[in-house]
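Handout, section B. The chain below has 500 residues.
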Amino acid sequence: MHPLLLPELLSLVKDYVEPEDWFSCSLVCCSWHTTFNPFVWDTCTVDPFQPSPPSVQALETHAPFIHTFIFSGYIPPSYFSAQYTNLHTLKMQCQNITFCIPNSTTDTRETINQMWLRVAALIRNSPSLSTIHISAQRDTLVNEIWVAIKDSPKVKTLRLAQLKVNHAQSLDFWKACSVLEKLEIDGCIIRDPLGSLWNVVGLPPSFPHLVEIKFESVSDIRAENQIQIMAMCPKLRSMYWRGGGVSEFPVDYFESAVTHRKEFQHLESIDLMGRTIPDNSICDIVKSLRKPLRKLALFQTCVGPLSLAVLGTHFQTIQELDFTECPQIHSKDVIMLLRSCPLLTSFKAGMLSSLDVKENESWPCSDRLLALYINIQLEEDDIQAASQRVFNCLSKLTSLRTLNIVKYSGLIGYLQHNDSPLQLRLDSGLSKLSTLRYLELMSFDKSGQSMTMQEGEWIKRNWKRLVAIRGRFNANQEMNQKINSLFITQNDRFHRRRQK
């Protein structure tokens, strides 16, 4: 057998080249075509604005290879003719759908409804389908969609964004949710199921299988009722809540549900946002949890010393911590958390002072950390020595994939300028970070860096897995462009990923 036909070599080639190059690999010879063609068609996207979308004939031929189907805009009837027997994931991105309908007339609503009926049929006829994402920009789907999901044998994950569920569909919508394991609702208008609707026969339904729920900017359902829906999931392990400016988190209701009514018995992941959530309430909630925490994210809350004291019982199991924009979490707290949680893989917080690093050079306690978002401030007279100590501690994070050394914020367009930021300079100790061989994302946006070509070449040479950089290398426009050119003209793989 020719060496280029060895399965082991083909596997290595597949892992080495970019997905964009799989099609070229499939044209090398028959054996390579047999190997790479399934990968080429594993994820298929149909977009009316594509220069050359896949033909109906090509879809019918390669339908058995398609595991993920992504539709954008209006989908012509002909695309539903193939039998997608191995389809696992269906994504419908239907923003501005009316602009995608050819020869649009006054019958646009009927045309869209017919498309949704075909989608419902696709769901019913896809026995392996397990995950559905639908984004429809305030459009109302046909009721057959929810019936198809309820009757599907394997659909367990449903993600909805920017759509509307009207009163007539509420019964079937919530029945569809009762068969799911994971439900995400983002920016949707949904009739409150805990109002008069519960007088309908068959409601309220139970949610015996749901283990993960995400509610973000959900309109027409009171915040208290959103938490009550979560409480109706006896197996719930993970909850995510964002009011999106529509409402504040119902602290008293959630605290009562956890501490008094003994609901949320299996909760191990909490992700909340709300400036009105006080430290003592977070303390009581954490104290009342029945299972060890795996994740705690408290964006823009008043989490503080009381909560940290009781959180200590979860230090041995916690894997993710997010205290972004929490004013009562100080630099000494950051050091304490990084030293105390041996399984920590992701950490986000406000500021880390070099003064605290000087007193606690033993952090971090583990090299498991994959993502670190922290605003590192050099608050000493000897900036050089402070930088060396910080770089020495960071060098221990040998598994790190993401490093963000500016103040992270979930608020779009909001980044605070550092006063004395850590400078990524070789003469300050940057070379110590050669141990971060798995680094993929580096962010230093608006941190006032003054790198030279020497630092740029060092980054390119040592962080070979890097696929994205966020921030200016140098305030000088000419120097910044020179360094930037290293990652554009000489590394096409980095450039393509960087633009996404």
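Note. The radius of gyration is 26 Å. Compare this with the example in section A.
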